[in-house]
User: What shape does this take?
Amino acid sequence: MLSSDLSSSLPLINKGKVRDIYSVTQSTLLIVTTDRVSAYDVALASAIPNKGAILTLLTAHWASILTKAIPDLRTHILTLDLPSQIPPTLHKTYRHRSTQVHKLLPFKIEAIVRGYLTREAWDS
Assistant: This one.
C-alpha cells in the first residue's frame, strides 16, 4: 500500500513520508502506516510489501511489553481495531497497519543516526 484513502470515511489530517493521519473524533486519531520507504528525508517511489503492517504490529508489541514492565508508563495507543466509520469492505486492507491513538500535543524531537558498521566497530 503506497497510499491510503479513507477520505470518504474520515478527514485526512496529515500525510507524512510513511504514515497518514485521519481524525476519528475530537480526541482520537487513526494512524495508517503505509509501505512507503523513506530514506534521507525523502519518500521513495518504491515500497516494501507489508512494511506498514510489520511496523504497526512491532510498535504495539513493544508498547505492550513496556507498559507491563513499567506500570506507570502511558502511551498514545488506544487500539489496533479499526473505527466504526471504516466500511467492512476496507477492513482487510487497513487491518494490522492502523492504530487508533489519543490526540495529544506532539513533543517534537528527531534523532537521525547514520553510519556504517566497520570492522573496528565490531572489534570494540
Q: What stands out?
A: The chain is about 25% helix and 25% strand.
